[in-house]
Specification:
single chain, alpha/beta, Elongation Factor Tu (Ef-tu), domain 3, 9 helices, 14 strands, about 25% strand
Length: about 300
């Protein structure tokens, strides 16, 4: 998959089927839009593409940072992703966006968006506006309907609320994959190793949608292999009580050196809330119980 960071001097593309959206989680609803664009590209025998923003227009937290969004989109067989900074087009009217960016710059032959899509200066354009403007330019426009799961709309805001409550199991169903963090392994205080329970430490930065602090049953992906693991997301109140949110993971059955490597940790279920223990020995016993619970969870 080719990734293009757009600039005003970008040469005109020759025909493409484009999916439009923030796609901040590439969730079930997003995949409906992207699949529609992909199917149309096959029908018309033209390239498939996605146009998205590098960050949220409102600077809101995202379900996945850009690099992970690109990885998820690549799995869907898209040929090219066009990445905009919001400021590049924030001043364009809906008419200018469709004419200048979609038609002239990208050579769009087909455009797809969700039923609640907004675009143009001040979010003045709606999905209906998009359909009307595309019709005037002889561009096929497909608007996907609302995707429902368990009686509620699938949306990024709903998934963020689920993560904030610690309900990763439901969130994963809406995402269609286990929610995850991909981040560099950092040096910590190595207390876990001294207790016989070595851990890897990763920053859970503010770009990610906030998750409920606590113990999670996870899988850690190392060299393509998935290891059952137990992760503490929070501020480590027993040993540090920092203001920063950290992810500390004990990988069951693994004792290698991962410092400086980028490691993926997938969330599958929440075990308990984060809490302060009387001492590190009590902490060690509880983590051992967490490990047994994690093994049972994955059975």
């Amino acid at each position: 998959m080719k990734t293009v960071t757009l600039a005003h001097s970008f040469p005109r593309a020759v025909g493409t089927s484009i999916a439009l959206g923030m796609f901040d989680g590439v969730h079930m609803g997003h995949r409906r839009i992207i699949s529609a664009a992909k199917n149309k590209s096959t029908e018309l025998e033209i390239p498939s593409s996605v146009l998205l923003f590098s960050r949220s227009p409102k600077n809101a937290s995202v379900l996945l940072p850009l690099r992970d969004r690109l990885r998820e989109i690549e799995k869907l067989g898209i040929d090219t992703v066009y990445v905009y900074d919001f400021e590049e087009i924030s001043g364009l009217t809906p008419e200018e966006f469709v004419q200048n960016e979609l038609c002239e710059k990208l050579g769009a032959k087909a455009v797809f968006a969700g039923y609640n899509y907004r675009f143009g200066k001040g979010a003045a354009g709606s999905a209906d506006t998009l359909a009307s403007l595309c019709a005037d330019l002889d561009i096929f426009c497909g608007i996907t309907e609302e995707v429902d799961y368990l009686g509620e709309s699938v949306s990024s805001s709903r998934i963020r609320a689920l993560l904030a409550d610690g309900d990763v199991e439901t969130a994963n169903k809406l995402l269609t994959y286990p929610y995850y963090l991909t981040s560099e392994v950092l040096h910590g205080k190595e207390l876990g190793r001294k207790l016989g329970l070595p851990t890897i430490n990763q920053h859970f930065d503010r770009e990610h949608a906030p998750m409920a602090h606590g113990i999670y049953y996870t899988k850690t992906i190392i060299d393509g292999r998935a290891y059952i693991s137990v992760s503490n997301l929070g501020v480590r109140p027993t040993v540090e009580n920092t203001e920063n949110t950290n992810l500390e993971t004990h990988i069951i059955g693994f004792d290698g050196d991962l410092y400086g490597r980028e490691v993926k940790v997938e969330f599958y279920g929440k075990g308990r809330d984060e809490k302060r223990f009387a001492d590190v020995e009590e902490l060690r016993r509880e983590v051992e119980r967490d490990c047994r619970r994690a093994i049972e969870f994955f059975k």
